[in-house]
């Protein structure tokens, strides 16, 4: 079961996130998704971290999911997906819609102060045009981890396909 709490992590969850990442977390705005036991799955990140635009809105933190998605990626699935994007105009249109959802959500989750800072620094073009995981070419798939993180928090056709083909969601309690 996936829960979308959109809340700040508590002390226990921060400790779990530090263990998941192998370092102290920085730039976390909220827990974007947890499993049924409250374990962080996806973090919603600040638009600017360490004085630079952060490339992704959603950061997949759960080790179970990262391992499984890495295994699927290693099997060559990204090439399969990119071939389908070239051959299937409806799938490509759905994928573009996923990017549009991502960009709109990233902009809309920013506070007015964050949007002003993004614009002041000249990052607004990047954060309004770059899609899932910061990708510029919306006809390519960069990484299943960012796609799947977005799937757990929004509308992502690649993540839906991964679940339909591989049942990754079934790993969660």
| Largest β-sheet summary | 4 strands, antiparallel
What fraction strand? Answer: 5-15%
* Number of E-state strands: 6
Backbone CA Rg: 16 Å
Q: What is the residue-mean pLDDT, rounded to a whole number? A: 95
Count of folded domains:
1
Question: How are helices and strands ordered from N to C?
Answer: EHEEEEEHHHHHHH
- Give the neighbour order of strands across the main sheet: 1-2-3-6
What do you see in this structure?
The chain is α+β, with helices and mostly antiparallel strands. The chain has one domain (2-168). It contains eight helices and six strands. It has helices at 11-21, 63-74, 77-87, 89-109, 112-121, 124-129, 144-153, 157-166, and strands spanning 2-3, 28-35, 40-45, 48-49, 52-53, 58-60. The strands form two sheets. It has a four-stranded antiparallel beta sheet with strand order 1-2-3-6, sandwiched between helices. The protein has a two-stranded antiparallel sheet with strand order 4-5. A hairpin with a 4-residue loop joins strand 2 (28-35) and strand 3. The mean pLDDT is 95.
Primary descriptors:
single chain, 173 residues, alpha+beta, four-stranded antiparallel beta sheet, two-stranded antiparallel ribbon, 8 helices, 53% helix, globular
Topology:
Layout (H helix, E strand, L loop, with lengths): L1 E2 L7 H11 L6 E8 L4 E6 L2 E2 L2 E2 L4 E3 L2 H12 L2 H11 L1 H21 L2 H10 L2 H6 L14 H10 L3 H10 L7
Antiparallel strand pairs: 1-2, 2-3, 3-6, 4-5
Helix pairs in contact: 3-4, 7-8
